[in-house]
Amino acid sequence: MAPKEMRTKRREQPNSKSFRFDSAIYDLRRLNSIVKDKDDSAFELWYRTEHARILATLTFVIGDLCLAEDVVDEAFVRAYDRWERVSSLESPAGWTYKVAINLVKRRSHRMTREYGPSASSSGESAAPLGVQEIWKIVSTLPKRQREVVVFRYIGDLTEIQIANVLGITRGTVSQTLRAAHAKLGALISEKEHEKADM
């Protein structure tokens, strides 16, 4: 293996901090240069409006801020590359969520295949401190319920958009939301009783 190939191989390892940093800087530079070159104010306005919400939603869904930043940046770059088609969709944000979720799934499968099950994330939340208590309650939900709740109430997606993002039916989304509401109601009630007993 040539030295250049070895450097590239080293950079692709999941535990390499420089890989995440280099990748994020590359994505941001690429996005900035594209925006400057095309001067597309519609995309720029949409990006400024949606980026923070999509990043927050994905952080809640996957529980890893660094990974969320990477996949959201890549999803926005892909949205810009296809902006003429994406902007004509009913929900460009829904398309961006779907791309980001697919990127997470691909990375997870690739890491598991290349480095074994221990390479996948620990599931520990890297969410900002201001939302830790909420994340603790929502994170107790089963994965599908957690995804649907976060997409609905943080991502502000409709049931149909959630169904498209997750590749399930609208009825499944509705049923999952009902089950999540019931479970969250019980958890919140339990927390209130614990506080009252103190």
Question: Concise description?
Answer:
With 198 residues, the chain is mainly α.
Structure commentary:
The protein has ten helices and no strands. With 198 residues, it is mainly α. The chain has two domains: 18-127, no CATH class; 128-198, Winged helix-like DNA-binding domain superfamily/Winged helix DNA-binding domain (Arc Repressor Mutant, subunit A), CATH 1.10.10. Helix 2 (17-38) packs parallel to helix 4, helix 4 (65-81) crosses helix 6 and helix 9 packs across helix 10 (170-197). The termini are far apart.
Write the topology of this structure.
Blueprint: H1 3-11, H2 17-38, H3 41-62, H4 65-81, H5 83-86, H6 92-115, H7 132-139, H8 143-153, H9 159-166, H10 170-197
Helix pairs in contact: 2-4, 3-4, 3-6, 3-8, 4-6, 6-9, 8-10, 9-10
Low-confidence stretches: 1-21, 35-39, 118-130
Order of helices and strands: HHHHHHHHHH
Q: Shape from CA axes? A: globular
Kindly report how far apart the N and C termini lie: 64 Å
